[in-house]
Design brief:
Layout lengths: L76 H9 L4 H5 L17 H9 L4 H8 L7 H7 L2 H6 L4 H5 L17 H9 L4 H8 L9 H6 L3 H6 L4 H6 L16 H9 L4 H7 L8
Helix pairs in contact: 1-3
């Protein structure tokens, strides 16, 4: 019942002992544990908690173009001259993005002189690519190098939907207010405000469709409510009166058509092509 083994055997035995005991820890490995396990949980964690986040925050714009959002008339001296050098005027400065073609270019594609002017306006490479350009011409690899791939991932993008525009995520067709919190974080991380997100996602997007595209997507009636025909839509000739009106100047059918095409009052007025005429 209590066998002992004076000397360890060279070969393993097929008959284990029934009640081995090891009063004290042995120098050589033993089949018997030196302590019994406990089934009582411990009240003290073995590692102290940390107040330091275990993962870095989402990468986003480190700085912001300091003059972004300023009224045109508030910009003076060399700042005004720099803005003019970059192609801005009152209309393109104070109205939605992409009224100035320079915003289509990332930092690496603008000249040294333009970079100097951007610097005068408080922009550096990070803030230009995020706040002005919104990484719109970046490939997936560029996003990785810029440290903002996680921002695009939060919006539901992967390499195919970003680089090839195949099966874009639902966020690409969603106004800012309707984004999930995760998606909003991604949008903000990529330099968007609520207004610029809605403009990029909706303002003017429908105007890139052909008349047939509208028909295929069930949106042709919406365009007709705004007074468009196939000819005026596809060629831009003989545009309807709604094209030159602010949202509150549209009649009920025109407003219905604008909303049907995904516009809100602010994004419609942002797309309004003659916004500066009546300033």
């Amino acid at each position: 019942k209590s066998p002992t083994t004076p000397d360890p055997s060279v070969t393993p035995t097929k008959s284990p002992t029934k009640s081995p005991t090891t009063p004290n820890p042995t120098v050589t490995p033993s089949d018997a544990p030196t302590a019994s396990p406990t089934y009582v949980p411990t009240y003290s964690p073995t590692v102290s908690p940390t107040n330091t986040p275990t993962a870095p925050p989402i990468a986003g714009p480190e700085t912001k173009c300091s003059y972004l959002g300023s009224a045109w008339n508030s910009i003076k001296g060399e700042e005004k001259e720099a803005a003019i050098n970059l192609g801005y005027d009152k209309c393109s400065w104070e109205n939605p993005p992409l009224r100035n073609s320079i915003e289509e270019y990332p930092w690496w594609n603008i000249t040294n002189e333009e970079k100097d002017d951007a610097d005068i306006l408080g922009c550096d490479e990070v803030s230009w690519d995020s706040q002005i350009h919104h990484y719109s011409s970046f490939y997936w690899e560029d996003l990785i190098n810029a440290g903002v791939k996680s921002c695009a991932t939060k919006l539901g993008y992967d390499i195919q939907s970003w680089d090839l525009q195949l099966n874009p995520p639902s966020s690409a067709f969603t106004l800012f207010d309707d984004l999930s919190n995760n998606e909003k974080e991604g949008a903000i991380c990529m330099g968007y405000s609520e207004f610029t997100w809605d403009f990029y996602q909706w303002g003017g997007v429908a105007y890139t469709f052909t008349w047939q595209d509208l028909k295929d997507d069930g949106l042709q009636d919406c365009a007709e409510d705004l007074g468009y025909t196939q000819n005026s839509w596809d060629t831009g000739i003989g545009l309807p009166a709604s094209y030159a009106q602010l949202f509150n100047e549209l009649d009920s059918d025109e407003k219905k058509g604008a909303i049907c095409l995904g516009y809100s009052e602010s994004t419609w007025d942002g797309e309004y092509p003659f916004a500066c005429v009546f300033d």
